[in-house]
């Protein structure tokens, strides 16, 4: 039985979750998980780098009977700031190691090496190529060119000092925790499989810390792998769909995601998400009966609100998601770029 006290839940078997708030974000919070081990407590993710988030995390740890200073390690499911943001402060306060998959660690290293102006310039070039209108690009150009670029969330993340190797048991005495590489949301996203009998006796294969890969009521954002130093043509949506099938076959007894709430029957949720993306890809093929830029496609896609109500920053994210779907359709041979179009347009074949 799960016991809850405010923002902390005891999931049994030496596992707790803490709701660490994300400022000004409809997600509300990240579920940071605490795992007891024979060598001391370990966190799965840390939450957003914000004073209120930090205070919530430290208070939550106290409610679990421990403290930041007693933490021995941090397992990061992926590099996004609502998961990795407080890792540096945790390490500074405790000396804990930080572990991450190499693909996301490489993103962290390159992110730290590039000044904010480089990222603004990268986004300008990317959005021009996607057919974004001048009024959307103008603020980014101004930020790039006026020398007063502000730092953006996640541009100074902590460097990990350990690598999470998929398939290997992690070095956590008294625990059988194994990493599963689940790219798609990010190139190095991992789920963490606690290969132990469920404390409440639920049927299935242990418990799964799913990060953002598998959520009970949200379809995770699958955009392009953003990196100004890497022009590799990737297929994030294809990665994600293959990773989903892997988790479906695992069939954990319970899923402990990083947002919303715990749930069971992972295979059923996987099927829902696979069906959703199949339907969405079919719908996009219909929209591409005539040539469209990625921006024009994003304007016509179905979102959780009308396009004109989507905030500025979220439109950029939406276009990245449209592009990831185009990449998948091109790879499947269902869509092709129109020769000579500038900005590039795509049409169904």
From TrEMBL:
Gene3D superfamilies, alphabetized: Ribonuclease Z/Hydroxyacylglutathione hydrolase-like
GO MF term list: hydrolase activity
Domain Metallo-beta-lactamase, residue spans: 29-259
Keyword Protease set for record: no
Coiled coil: none
Record keyword Lipid biosynthesis present: no
Matches recorded under SUPFAM superfamilies: Metallo-hydrolase/oxidoreductase
Pfam families on file: Lactamase_B (PF00753)
Name this protein carries in UniProt: MBL fold metallo-hydrolase
């Amino acid at each position: 039985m799960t016991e809850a006290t405010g923002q902390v839940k005891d999931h049994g078997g030496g596992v707790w979750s803490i709701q660490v708030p994300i400022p000004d974000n409809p997600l509300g919070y990240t579920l940071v998980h605490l795992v007891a081990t024979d060598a001391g407590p370990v966190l799965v993710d840390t939450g957003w780098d914000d004073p209120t988030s930090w205070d919530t995390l430290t208070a939550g740890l106290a409610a679990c009977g421990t403290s930041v200073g007693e933490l021995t390690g941090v397992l990061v499911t992926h590099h996004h700031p609502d998961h990795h943001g407080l890792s540096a402060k945790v390490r500074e306060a405790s000396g804990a190691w930080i572990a991450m998959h190499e693909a996301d660690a490489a993103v962290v290293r390159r992110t730290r090496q590039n000044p904010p102006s480089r990222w603004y310039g990268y986004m300008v070039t990317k959005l021009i190529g996607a057919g974004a209108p001048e009024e959307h690009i103008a603020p980014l150009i101004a930020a790039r060119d006026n020398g007063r670029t502000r730092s953006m969330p996640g541009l100074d993340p902590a460097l990990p000092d350990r690598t999470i190797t998929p398939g290997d048991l992690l070095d956590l005495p008294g625990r059988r925790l194994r990493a599963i590489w689940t790219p798609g949301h990010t190139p190095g996203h991992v789920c963490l499989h606690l290969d132990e009998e469920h404390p409440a006796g639920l049927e299935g294969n242990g418990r799964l810390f799913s990060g953002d890969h598998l959520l009970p009521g949200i379809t995770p954002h699958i955009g392009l792998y953003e990196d100004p130093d890497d022009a590799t043509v990737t297929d994030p949506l294809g990665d994600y769909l293959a990773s989903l099938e892997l988790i479906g076959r695992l069939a954990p007894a319970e899923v402990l995601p990083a947002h919303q709430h715990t749930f069971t029957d992972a295979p059923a949720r996987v099927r829902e998400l696979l069906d959703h993306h199949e339907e969405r890809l079919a719908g996009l093929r219909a929209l591409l009966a005539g040539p469209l830029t990625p921006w024009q496609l994003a304007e016509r896609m179905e979102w959780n609100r009308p396009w004109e109500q989507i905030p500025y920053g979220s439109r950029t994210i939406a276009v990245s998601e449209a592009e990831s779907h185009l990449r998948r359709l091109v790879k499947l041979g269902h869509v092709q770029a129109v020769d000579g179009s500038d900005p590039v347009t795509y049409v169904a074949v």
